[in-house]
Amino acid sequence: AIWVPDILKKFDVDAIRYYLSINMPENKDTNWMWDDFVAKNNDELVGAYGNFVHRVVTFTQKNFGEIPKLGKLNTSDKEAIKKIEETSKEVSDALEKCHFKKGLRAAMNLAQFGNQYFNQNEPWKLVKEDEERCKTVLHVSLKIINALSVFIASYLPFSSDKIWKLLGNKDSIHEGKWEFAFNNLNVGYKLERPQPLFTKLSLQDFMVEADPFSKFDLRVAKILDVKDHPQADKLYMMQIDIGALGKRVLVAGMKPYYSIEEIKGKK
Q1: Which H or E element spans position 119?
Q2: Which pLDDT score, from 0 to 100, does residue 109 have?
Q3: How many other CB atoms sit within 10 Å of the CB of residue 259?
Q4: What is the pTM of this model?
C-alpha cells in the first residue's frame, strides 16, 4: 500500500495531486504504480504543462522583459482564444459533475495546444523578422498560461498560484473567480526569469532494490535444556543461550521430528 502522508515527504505536492487526479477512477480505489507516476510526471506535468509555461515566459522575459501588448489577431490567434473559451466550458462542466479526471485532461489538452501554437508561430524567427507579430504571439501564449492557472488551480494549487503571480497578479489565485481566466493581461508588467515549476524524476533515484534479508537479525544459539511442553503433545520447551543476548526460553514444534537427546546440547 502507498500512504499519501509518506510520499508527501519525498515529492512535490502538486506532482502527487496531479498523478492522483489524472489516474482517478472516480468510483473505486486506484493503484499507485511508481513507473507510471514517473512517466506522467515527466511526460505530462514537466514535458507538456511545465515546459510550455517555462519556455513562453523565459522567451518573453529574455527578448522583451515585460508582458507585450496584443496586436492584430490572425486566424491562429483567434483559434487560440476560442480554444481557451472551449476549455473553460469543458473544465467547469466536468468539475460541476465531479468528473475530475476529465476536467484535468481537458486543461492539459489546452497546454498541449499552447505548445503547438507556440511552435507553429515560431516566435524565435518573428523576433528578428516581425517584432510586432512576435509580441502578439507571446501575448496570446501568455493568455493561455493565465487561463491554465485558473483552470488547474483546484488540481495544482501551489504551482497555479506561482504562475498567477508570475504574470503580475498580486492576490492569490484562490481568492479570484473563474472569469479571471479571461482577464486582460498586465501589459508592461516586468517579468522575472522563471524557475522550472516541476522537477523531472528518475525511477532509479528512489526505487532502490533492497536485499530482502538485510533487516533480519539471525543468531546462532546453543540448546541448554529441553523439556516436554506441559500443555501440548507436539511441542518442546527449550532453554537456549544466545551469547551476548543472554539466555531465553522458547517453544518449538520439533517434538514429532526430534527426540530430546538428538537436540539437547546442539546449536
Answers
A1: helix 100-121
A2: 97
A3: 11
A4: 0.75
